[in-house]
Amino acid sequence: MGDNQQAITEDQWHRAALIWEYHQMHHALRPVDVAIGLGSHDLGVATRSAELYRAGLFPTLVFTGGNSPTTAKVFPRGEAVHFREHAIGLGVPSEAILLEPSAGNTGQNITLSREVLAGAGITPATVLLVSKPYMERRSYATARKLWPDIEILCASEPLDLDDYVKSIGDEKLVLDMLVGDLQRVIEYPKRGFAIEQEVPADVRGAYESLIRDGFTSRLIAS
User: Fold this and answer.
1) Helices and strands, counts by H and E, the chain
2) Which of 4, 17, 76, 207 is 20 to 30 Å from 60 at the Cα level?
3) What sign does the dihedral 206-207-212-213 (CA atoms) show?
4) Where exactly does CATH 3.40.50.620 map onto the chain?
5) Is 166 left (phi over 0), alpha (psi -120 to 50) or beta?
6) For residue 133, how many C-alpha atoms fall within 13 Å in the half-sphere facing its CB?
7) What Pfam families does this protein map onto (predicted)?
8) Cα gap 142→124, rounded to integer Å
9) Residue 158, exposed/middle/buried by CB under 10 A (0-12, 13-18, 19+)?
C-alpha cells in the first residue's frame, strides 16, 4: 500500500465484503446462445470469457468497449480490441469473437452489442454477461431494462474480495469502486437506465457508512 493510500480497518473490510457479496448475482451457469464480455480496466473479464467459451457454454462471444479515462493508457487501442487479443491467446478462435469497439458505458455495451449481433444475423434468447465481479448486478439491471425480452445470466472471475484486491493492487480504489457501483444500482433506475433492485438494509448501511468514511472517488452526482 502506497504512502498516500488510506489504511483500511477491519470494520471497513467487513462492510466492503457485504457489498461485494451483494454485487454478485450467483447465477448457476449453463449453455447460452451468446456471451458478452463487458469492457473495463480488468483483463480478468477476457480471461473468464475464454474459460467459459472453452467449457462449451456458448458458440459466440462479443467483446464490447472503447476507452475511458481509466483504461486509455492500459488499453490504448480500446478495451474490446485488447480483450479479443487476450482471449485469442487463451485459445478462443478469432471467428467465434465479434467486436464492438465504441461503447463508453454499460448501456452502450448492451445496445451496441445487440446491434453487432443483429448485424451478424444472431438473435439470441439467452445471453451471458461477463463482467468484473462487483459489476454483475449493475450489468444485469441494465440489460434487463434495455433488452427485456431475453434471459440474462451473469458471470465473473470466481474471486473473493481479498484476492480481487491483490489482483488490482489498490485497496482504497477497490472499495471506492464497490461503493460507486452500488450507488449506480440505487440511482440508475430513477434515471431510466436500469431496473429497480432491492438493497438489503445491512448492505445499504455498509454503503452509507463507507461513504461517510471517505470512499467516494467513484461516486456520481446524484
Assistant:
1) 8, 5
2) 76
3) positive
4) 26-155
5) alpha
6) 20
7) DUF218
8) 17
9) exposed
Can you tell me the distance from the alpha carbon of 75 to that of 65, in angstroms, rounded to the nearest whole number?
10
Residue 3: per-residue pLDDT = 40
Q: pLDDT of 86-137, one tens digit each?
A: 999 999 999 999 999 999 999 999 999 999 999 999 999 999 999 999 999 9
Give all strands of the β-sheet with 34-38 in edge-to-edge order: 97-100, 60-64, 34-38, 126-130, 151-155
Cell of 29: 451457469
pLDDT, average across residues 142-153? 97
| pLDDT of the residue at 42 | 86
In angstroms, rounded to a whole number, what is the distance separating the alpha carbons of residues 15 and 13? 5
The cell numbers describing 11, all together, are: 470494520
φ, ψ for residue 207, nearest 5 deg: -60, -50
- Number of residues that this document lists for the chain: 222
